[in-house]
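Hey Z.,

So I finally got round to the inosine-5'-diphosphate thing we talked about over coffee. Here's the setup:
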Amino acid sequence: MIQDQEVLAAEMERTFIAIKPDGVQRGLISEIITRFERKGFKLVGIKIMVPSNGFAQKHYHGLKERPFFNGLCNFLSSGPVVAMVWEGEGVIRYGRKLIGTDPQKSEPGTIRGDLAVVLGRNVIHGSDGPETAKDEISLWFKPEELVSYTNNAEKWIYGQN
Ligand code: IDP
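And the result:
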């Protein structure tokens, strides 16, 4: 039974979430973690690091042609970032909902709606789809840095089959 739960946990959807340097400097780490945790998602990886500019360029490689690319990479590498992997049913899509979009267009209640004002300082990153999630998780984390475990609250979050 415990083994089944472990297998289930290992197969659950995962997404990459990063608290950007502005979020860290503004003291928003616990606020942001709380929103994901309270929803019922499970933290399976976390570290704090200052990414190099080259690393930031790898992370944002899809935006290389955009005019704001250099500024964005300089910003991401300007200070500590909290890199995380969150797990749960629908976590990629719903994580984006928790995050919001452009701070000016995001509803109150979302992270960017509540905690950010401009596009270039939007405090948080979240993978935008399953492929990106996979790529970003493997860029930021070694497999052994991710922990598969059963959280006792899961049976209350998902119900029992
Ligand atoms: P997302 O983070 O909401 O998925 P993307 O379009 O993937 O948004 O852009 C990545 C990041 O680039 C954004 O989070 C934001 O920090 C930055 N960015 C996007 N558009 C602009 C812009 O027009 N000016 C400055 N920065 C931008």
